[in-house]
Amino acid sequence: MTMRAPSNISTRAARAAERISRDGAWGEDPPATLEALGAGLQVCRRCDLWRAATQAVGGAGPSGAALMLVGEQPGDQEDLAGAPFVGPAGRVLDRALRKAGAPREEIYVTNAVKHFKHDLRGKRRLHKTPGAGEVSACRWWLDAERRLLRPKVIVAMGATAALGVFRRPTPIGANRGRAFPLDGGGQGVVTFHPSFVLRAPEEAGKAEALAAIVADLKFAWELAAG
Fold it and tell me: Does some domain include residue 176?
């Protein structure tokens, strides 16, 4: 079963979504299925990011995935498509996964924040980093994904993702190459966000950043397969 932010949802799922979208803690009325989770995201009002976004963007991948990748938030193309990592950073991620020998179709990919935060510059929508409050508000959905999938390993890609997964600031460079136990089970790994490769000013820097991500993804994939 693959979960994507649905364009058409059942009446039952929509009603359940209305009940769970605003409040709820770890143990209170969590979504019981990926369908209910996707429906809930579309009516979520836990923070104000929904106001300027086209839609919420949930995760995508098999429900039995042993490895979950968590990015920062949807970008412009993801916001329009309703699917995670389909833009430039997604193409970098696909390349890194191929080099790491980790098939994307066997991995669940999502974000710490489910709505696109941005500033308008004319007709352009420029990425804006989510704040800690927005990460905290959206953590309920990330926790729900974790509960439903129960992955063995979660990779936090970038500082915002690490804050969502580990619930505290976690410097990427100082914590790469290690696995950390997570509350609720499983292990966590950190790496750079794929957009780090795109932002590197020179080709040598881009190659170095990509190699680091590949190494971390290979480590996580082998850990999940063990």
Answer: yes
